[in-house]
Specification:
The protein is built from 26 helices and 33 strands. It is α+β, with helices and mostly antiparallel strands and 878 residues long.
């Protein structure tokens, strides 16, 4: 391993800052080869009794060229300060003072996409988590909040638009073709929420009238070629603003709200106060290049970043260990928004699929951490599904336990108490406890809990006494104390849901049991028949449920349970059991065949016109290879893939007539709309096509090509492409090559469409996959400095093509290590995130595990690993 190992930062070592910054004045002088940044900081000693009493002011900074430094107008000499890697120490500062600092940075050379950098023809910033230190020397920590006033000067012809946080307060033309704009943000914020954009941009304008009657100017800034891709984002923003007022009572607080679309961006979007910077993939949409899923994703991300205005901006996090305070809460809010505007059940299923396949895997791997981590080496590595998705599930559990009314009272108290301040996860729980009158001390354990708890359920029915006893037992892999777990449940009888008679509770058809001990039993009375339990309804807690359901009981729940999520889950559980048997059969060289019971159930779903097509589509989907891998003790990637494909083929053949009838019946000549009704019908129709194509017949290949040619929207185009590129038949290979060429010819000037073109080819499971990916790395449209391109090709292959990534010769692992090594010098964040498929090498059989370990070891021996990659590699090998 490296000689100088990066030092871990621990939550236990947190101390308040020694100094605070009352006001921050920034002046940006932007040029083609450099940017000069002048900062004027009004600083004072932190009066908090537990703040350090240091006489020196220590500021963070990286990659900066210091030009000058002064305090209260007095220029400092080299004896007054010390520069060291990552910091500037100003010696013996007064109790209060004004520090003026001038630095230079090189945005065009900054390929990390942190701090101030160039994306195509514009300057832009990304400061979360620790990017502001690449702009100027500053107290770069979230618990230092300051009023910002920003002036930007640049060439007027090349950069006619100059934007920053807050409200515009001045603009003037200057000599030599330059101009200047000034922005003032009246709200205190940490520097990670600072933003700047300068470029040749156009905007689409909208408006919103707040609940108090204020008019807010809404603007989405894009390159001129993208003006036709903003309408959906604008409508999504207006819906989010209204929803936040109605559901949380939160009103927007500035005169203007701006979004800027940036092509080079490490994340999805950033909630900078009043000036959100978005990855183009998360804001630009039109019916020609955007899928149904893309429209839904954009709506959710627009809402997420807007909701941060309160849950993240007005109330921010005290330190980065509290990251889930803003992210988990805001993910819960955006999920609730999407559920309210669309199908709540479909949204819940989609969220849980992500959680159970990817976050559960994260929980079981070497980088597992609580939603409030104890330590980190590089905070960028903790923008994880655990922080976001599991964090949201913890907030959702609070909502289950307290109820909507008490939860709203708790959130109101939280916002009121901490407005303009930096808060902690404990502050959030304190507000919820005080507003509801509940003791939530046991619930706090969720914030320090590591791994996914297991919930075992058993039952007993006494027909003579008419009692049903449900026993729940929780197990924590980290060995901690019992958690408070809300278990939403019901009992299902022959005619449907049964009334629940539990002592001390009102009679209901559904209730939330509070499991607070290691083991608890709940006795229900007046139960006239042996029921089938419907447990963890709506997935009320992020746990792994174990109950010995029989196939017959699962089929029963699929048809009779009133909870849509559990109907889907019963279908998934039944299919998972079938696929696990088929995986064993494949490894033992036995014939592969799907279960007749599941085939019959899927036939009934397809023939029932009363069901929501979107839900039927979800129930038709077989469990993913990622989910099957998560269930396996040892992951045999080839066996999982072959068994799942055999199941798809068997179902396609057995249900061909039914699938074809449904496919034809779902055809529509209506103009395309990305609404939930049409999207649900398209989803089911494309599921039918997927099963038909799995048969690999000549007729199926014809259907796929016809589907591609007739498609009037990107959802159907990509569905046909994915089907064609997965069929291992000469005719299909020939036609998929034609379709891929046709796709590129039609959309080569649309970067977002080209990303989808890369991704389809990266995940195609046909022989020679890695060779095709390497060839695409040399394609003129590929750019290794653009994260969207890297994710579409490299990450898609490594995470989405397990059959070929996990080739026993180790070629996939060596390829990933090469890409990580190449990227680490320019964009460590992106490089570290690519590593995930290698981190769980211990779960694979010997040939794979040894090759994965060798790839990680090779990276560990590199002489200059970034902190980002070092942390992931060292934890994976440790």
């Amino acid at each position: 391993m490296k000689e100088a190992q990066p030092k871990a930062i621990a939550l236990a070592d947190y101390r308040p800052p020694a100094f605070l910054i009352e006001h921050t004045e920034l002046f940006f002088d932007l040029h083609e080869d450099y940017a000069e940044v002048s900062s004027t900081l009004r600083c004072y000693r932190n009066p908090a009794p537990d703040a350090p009493r240091s006489a020196d002011l220590v500021l963070q900074g990286e990659g900066l060229e210091l030009q000058s430094l002064s305090i209260d107008g007095r220029a400092l000499t080299a004896d007054d300060y010390a520069l060291a890697p990552g910091e500037l120490r100003v010696r013996q500062v007064p109790e209060s003072f004004t520090l003026a600092c001038v630095t230079r940075c090189r945005p065009r050379e900054n390929k990390s996409l942190e701090g101030l950098y160039n994306s195509r023809t514009m300057f832009c910033t990304q400061c979360e988590a620790e990017g502001f230190r690449k702009i100027t020397y500053y107290l770069d920590r979230p618990d230092v909040l300051s009023r910002f006033r920003t002036t930007i000067e640049a060439d007027a012809a090349r950069y006619p638009v100059l934007l920053s946080n807050g409200n515009p307060v001045g603009r003037e033309a200057l000599a030599n073709g330059r101009h200047r704009a000034c922005w003032d943000d009246p709200f205190n914020k940490p520097c990670y929420l600072f933003a700047l954009v300068a470029g040749d941009l156009r905007y689409v304008q909208g408006a919103f009238t707040t609940m108090s009657g204020r008019e807010v100017d809404l603007r989405i800034y894009v390159e001129e070629k993208d003006l036709d891709k903003c309408e959906h984002a604008m409508q999504s923003l207006q819906r989010a603003m209204r929803w936040d007022e109605e559901v949380y009572g939160r009103e927007y607080d500035l005169d203007i709200y701006m979004i800027v679309a940036v092509d080079d961006f490490n994340m999805g979007a950033m909630e900078n106060k009043g000036l959100n910077i978005f990855n183009t993939s998360c804001v630009l949409a039109n019916t020609a290049i955007t899928t149904d899923a893309g429209f839904a994703r954009i709506e959710a991300i627009i809402a997420h970043e807007y909701f941060h205005n309160w849950s993240g901006n007005r109330v921010t996090c005290r330190d980065w260990f509290q990251l889930s305070l803003k992210e988990g809460f805001t993910v819960f809010r955006d999920a609730s928004f999407s559920a309210d505007l669309n199908s709540a059940t479909v949204k819940r299923v989609e969220d849980v699929k992500l959680l159970r396949t990817q976050q559960f895997a994260e929980d079981a791997g070497p980088t597992a951490h609580p939603i409030r981590p104890d330590s980190y080496i590089e905070i960028a590595n903790f923008y994880t599904l655990t922080i976001y998705e599991k964090g949201a599930e913890v907030v959702r559990m609070l909502h289950h336990l307290l109820g909507a009314e008490a939860f709203r009272a708790g959130s109101d108290l939280y916002f009121e108490r901490h407005d303009g301040r930096a808060a902690t996860c404990d502050d959030f729980i304190d507000a919820m406890a005080e507003a509801s009158g509940r003791d939530l001390n046991q619930f706090r354990r969720w914030y320090s809990q590591v791994g996914t708890p297991r919930l075992d359920a058993s039952d007993d029915y006494d027909a003579d006494a008419g009692t049903y006893t449900l026993t729940l037992e929780q197990h924590r892999g980290d060995g901690g104390e019992a958690l408070l777990i809300p278990v939403s449940m019901g009992l299902v009888g022959r005619a449907g849901p049964l009334p629940l008679h539990l002592e001390g509770a009102a009679v209901a058809q559904e209730m939330v049991l509070e499991l607070s001990a290691r083991r608890q039993s709940f006795v229900f009375r007046n139960v006239a028949e042996r029921p089938v339990p419907s447990l963890l309804r709506d997935f009320s807690a992020p746990v792994k449920l174990h109950y010995p359901y029989t196939p017959e009981q699962l089929l029963f729940l699929m048809s009779r349970d009133s909870d849509g999520f559990n109907r889907w889950d019963a279908c998934q559980t039944l299919a998972t059991g079938m696929l696990q048997r088929m995986i064993d059969d494949y490894r033992a060289a036995r014939p592969l065949a799907p279960d007749d019971g599941l085939i019959g159930a899927l036939r009934q779903l397809l023939e029932d016109d009363s069901l929501d097509p979107a839900m039927v589509a979800l129930m038709l989907q077989l469990p993913s290879e990622a989910w099957l891998s998560e269930q396996a003790e040892i992951i045999h990637a080839a066996a999982i893939h072959r068994a799942r494909e055999a199941a798809r083929q068997g179902i396609g053949r057995a249900l061909q007539d039914t699938l074809l009838a449904a496919y034809d019946a779902l055809h529509s000549t209506a103009a395309y709309r990305p609404d939930s009704e049409q999207a649900g019908r398209r989803s089911l129709r494309n599921q039918c096509l997927g099963y038909l194509s799995a048969t690999g017949s000549a007729q199926a290949i014809d259907w796929c090509e016809a589907h591609y040619r007739a498609a009037d929207n990107m959802t159907d185009v990509l569905a046909a492409l994915q089907c064609l590129t997965a069929i291992d038949h000469d005719s299909a290979v020939e036609r998929s090559a034609w379709a891929l060429d046709d796709f590129y010819r039609r959309w080569q000037h649309e970067p977002l469409a080209v990303n989808q073109w890369f991704q389809v080819q990266a995940v195609a499971p046909l022989p020679g996959a890695l060779g095709r990916v390497r060839e695409l790395l040399r394609h003129p449209a590929y750019d290794r400095y653009n994260p969207n391109k890297v994710r579409a090709l490299v990450a898609a292959f490594c995470a989405g093509n397990p059959l070929h990534f996990h080739a026993e010769d180790g070629s996939g692992y060596r390829f990933l290590a090469e890409q990580v090594d190449e990227l680490d010098g320019s964009n460590p964040q992106l490089a570290a995130r690519l590593l995930t498929p290698l981190t769980r090498w211990r779960k694979y059989p010997a040939p794979n595990a040894e090759a994965m370990h060798a790839a990680l070891q090779g990276l560990a021996e590199r002489p200059a690993l970034s902190r980002d990659v070092y942390e992931i590699v060292s934890k994976s090998l440790g």
